[in-house]
Write a structure and sequence with these properties.
Two copies of one chain form a homodimer.
Chain A (H helix, E strand, L loop, with lengths): L9 E5 L3 H12 L3 E5 L3 H9 L5 E3 L10 E4 L3 H5 L3 H6 L5 E4 L5 H10 L3 E2 L1 E3 L20 E4 L7 H13 L3 E4 L2 H28 L3 H10 L2 H7 L6 H10 L1 H24 L2 H18 L6
Parallel strand pairs in A: 1-2, 1-4, 2-3, 4-5, 5-6, 8-9
Antiparallel strand pairs in A: 7-8
Helix pairs in contact in A: 7-11
Chain lengths: 291, 291
């Protein structure tokens, strides 16, 4: 008999930061009973105050009646989960995560739990922590899953149904391609943007720095935004997507070499060609609905 | 007798694109009589329809009664102005420009006109052309001037007064420092952002490209925005600010080398330090009022 993709009414969320907290708010609205786990009692109290879940505890044993569990922890803790968490997960629960790198997470969790589905809901704001969660964070955003041979197809259906009810666009990809793509469009931008900020602070004399600061406008603000973000996130993406990021960085340096060459040669014709092409690539690449 | 900084009622604007058109709209509102020049008759008709100036012509001789003239042309034409334009400028008029590179413009215009003031109003949108001009484009934005020994102080006062009446923040700097600063915070971002787009299009297999496209989100959109902009602008800034841009690019590559080194060495501690510092630099650098 095929399991119906109708979820149980009890959902657990481990971690109530931006993603976990937002899940809690939306899932309660969808009629689920939500059990939230935080690391510290102080955060639990704040999460209760913000009504991020019906029940909030620092004790993972409250997950015992949950049939679906979202692990919304930072990458480091997703890849090295605590044994108290592992032990608290009911054997038959569908478990998913929200991490931005999938190969190492699949490697860990396929061994730990038979009904694990690797997820990467691609959404966010600049906020983080227990105060960051908000309603409708997932609406019209991609919910990427990276199933492999070991993935339980019925568990996958359960996550599919929930992601649709959150308003997400469902995208299935293999984990390696996902990690490469994320390296290119998400992790590489963090590095190149951070390198811009680092250039300013390390190679600039005071009067130049001061003038640059007073005239920096929206172009600079946009290009430097992701490089000025959460350092912990930046380090973990580099750590867990190192190979792909190094590969992307190498390709990026080839592009930069080309620009430098055209500048040095005063080859304005070729520079124009490449800028016409990047103008087209961006128009083709940026779908308004994901902004 | 000192000339009063009170402007005449007749202002000329050469070029009615984003900057020139926006100047036309605001200056008419401030009570000036505005004479606009376009290159082609078709554009002149569109400018008349949009009421970008009281009088619009393709013939520079309509500038004959203007005592203040804004040359709002692309860099190429600012640095190599047509003789018909030069001949049409009344000898006693205060003339200013809007170009983003100041050393070559000062070099050209100090020889051409005794009452030239080098200006760089730092504002904009993604739009360009005769349909781009809009009201209040200058409000709270920097109006940078780069006077030198040859600059007429009374002409400078006239431009100062107008920039204040447009709502600008007046910033005076020397032309060389201005061009270096703009190289760092405006022209370098265009190159590093374009190099990101070029990396995607040149080094990516079709399935990776397709996935990357479907999951690219606001971080990618922001980092790639200026690199996907107007190619003509990109080429002209490279052409006329080449030396500073090459210098900035060299410094930038040092930063990128550092990130690559930490990745290869798995030196997460140093990577964290640098990302903590770029997070602070950005908070310090981005003034909300210029966004």
């Amino acid at each position: 008999m095929e399991l119906q993709a109708k979820p149980s009414k009890n959902i657990g969320i481990v971690g109530l930061g931006l993603i976990g907290g937002s899940l809690g708010l939306d899932l309660q609205k969808l009629g689920y009973t939500v059990y939230g786990i935080t690391h510290r009692e102080k955060t639990a109290a704040q999460a209760r105050e913000r009504k991020l879940a019906h029940f909030v505890s620092t004790d993972p044993s409250i997950l015992k009646d949950c049939s679906i569990i979202f692990i919304a922890l930072p990458l480091e803790q997703l890849i090295n989960p605590s044994s108290s968490l592992i032990n608290a997960i009911p054997e038959n629960a569908v478990v998913t995560d929200v991490g931005s790198v999938k190969v190492p997470i699949l490697k860990t969790w396929n061994k730990l739990h038979p009904r694990f589905v690797a997820s990467h809901p691609m959404t966010g704001t600049e906020a983080s922590g227990v105060h960051a969660g908000q309603h409708k964070l997932f609406k019209n955003k991609p919910w990427v899953v990276t199933p492999d041979k070991a993935t339980d197809q019925q568990a996958l259906k359960v996550i599919h149904q929930i992601s649709l009810s959150l308003g997400c666009k469902w995208i299935s990809a293999d984990a390696q391609t996902h990690d490469e793509a994320v390296g290119l469009i998400s992790h590489l931008p963090v590095l190149i943007s951070a390198a811009l900020l680092n250039t300013l602070s390390s190679d600039t004399n005071p009067s130049l720095y001061s003038l640059a600061k007073s005239i920096a406008s929206s172009g600079f603000a946009d290009t430097s935004r992701v490089g000025g973000g959460n350092p912990e996130l930046g380090v973990s993406m580099a750590k867990f997507n190192k190979k792909n990021l190094i590969k992307s960085l190498l390709c990026y340096r080839h592009s930069l070499d080309l620009f430098e060459k055209y500048l040095l040669e005063e080859n304005w014709n070729e520079l124009d060609k490449i800028l016409v092409s990047t103008n087209e690539v961006r128009q083709n690449f940026i779908s308004k609905s994901t902004m």
